[in-house]
Amino acid sequence: MDFNNSNDSARKPNGRRISVAPMMDWTDRHCRLFHRQITQHTWLYTEMVTTGALLHGDVPRHLNFNDEEHPVALQLGGSEPADLAQSARLGEQWGYDEINLNCGCPSERVQKGAFGACLMNEAPLVADCVKAMRDAVQIDVTVKHRIGIDDVTSYDFVRDFIGTVAEAGCSTFIVHGRNAILKGLSPKENREIPPLRYEVVYQLKKDFPNLEIILNGGIKTIEEIDTHLQHVDGVMLGREAYHNPYLMAEFDARYYGDAKPARSRTDVLEAMIPYMHEQLKLYGSSEKGGGLRLNSMTRHMLGLMTGLPHARSFRQTLSDAKKLAQGRPELVLEALQRMQPHAA
């Protein structure tokens, strides 16, 4: 396994038929490498990275990723066309397959920076941002957004937003089927309280048949995915992909026609052990004065046994502070053994 980013060895990206949403504090490089052990073709996204973090911070820390993650997209947060263009150029240089602009995050931090969901009120500016990034890179530039802001529920609002941004050359829109409430709701509440209106996203595909429209928001089952794919080009999963990652074991065969058998949960864990050893070797275990904790990798695996008997034993073992402090990647197999013979 090659755990280092390499432009030369990157696989050609597959279609965005199924993807995993960018999720702050969750979809880091360890999470994405773990997900890649379950599905080879599902499109993966980074956490949102702000232009300020790239232009004034530690670029390798924010952009380094594992070659096995392809196809993988870099999501950017920002509202200055020149800064976004420079950041997109960095993303392309580091080997990402796509640059995605965040126009859907409703957090206070994002609002203070005047980007994220706020940008839906400024479609011409978003168009300028998209054009600047498209002029700067050869890879796809896409936009992720909501269907409305606050109490604006008119279909015309999101239709006109997409129409304006599409004129700048964006052909792929990832649409979260809820409004973003900028005042009074937390980001978590914004994922749960505003009602889902999938029919709005379906209508967008009808009105823009030549654009790639991907649906996001509240999707949890294979049956729901199949239903949505009758109306849109792709489906993006969020929290369900994180809390129940083995759901993705069906994706390669079902949605990409890959006849290769899916890895078992046991095989997934065994495949992660060399990676964890390599990461601890590169960055040093925090237990020995280094900068990496074993928990920073194992925490993403807690949901692997969701739905199986004794899954709680698996989670408890991987959450045991004393065992984690030993810094042994083989702890994942010990967690598996605690629930045997139930693990598949």
Automatic annotation (TrEMBL):
Transmembrane segments: none annotated. HAMAP family: DusA_subfam. Belongs to the Dus family. DusA subfamily. Residues 20-332 form the DUS-like FMN-binding domain. Its EC number is 1.3.1.91. GO terms for molecular function: flavin adenine dinucleotide binding; FMN binding; tRNA binding; tRNA-dihydrouridine20 synthase activity. The active site is at C105 (proton donor). The record marks N102, K188, R191, R312, R315 as: Interacts with tRNA. It is an enzyme of class 1 (oxidoreductase). Pfam families: Dus. It catalyses: 5,6-dihydrouridine(20a) in tRNA + NADP(+) = uridine(20a) in tRNA + NADPH + H(+); 5,6-dihydrouridine(20a) in tRNA + NAD(+) = uridine(20a) in tRNA + NADH + H(+); 5,6-dihydrouridine(20) in tRNA + NAD(+) = uridine(20) in tRNA + NADH + H(+); 5,6-dihydrouridine(20) in tRNA + NADP(+) = uridine(20) in tRNA + NADPH + H(+). Catalyzes the synthesis of 5,6-dihydrouridine (D), a modified base found in the D-loop of most tRNAs, via the reduction of the C5-C6 double bond in target uridines. Specifically modifies U20 and U20a in tRNAs. FMN binds at P22, M23, M24, Q75, K144, H176, N216, G217, G218, G238, R239. Its cofactor is FMN. Keywords: Flavoprotein, FMN, NADP, Nucleotide-binding, Oxidoreductase, RNA-binding, tRNA processing, tRNA-binding. PROSITE patterns: UPF0034. This is tRNA-dihydrouridine(20/20a) synthase.
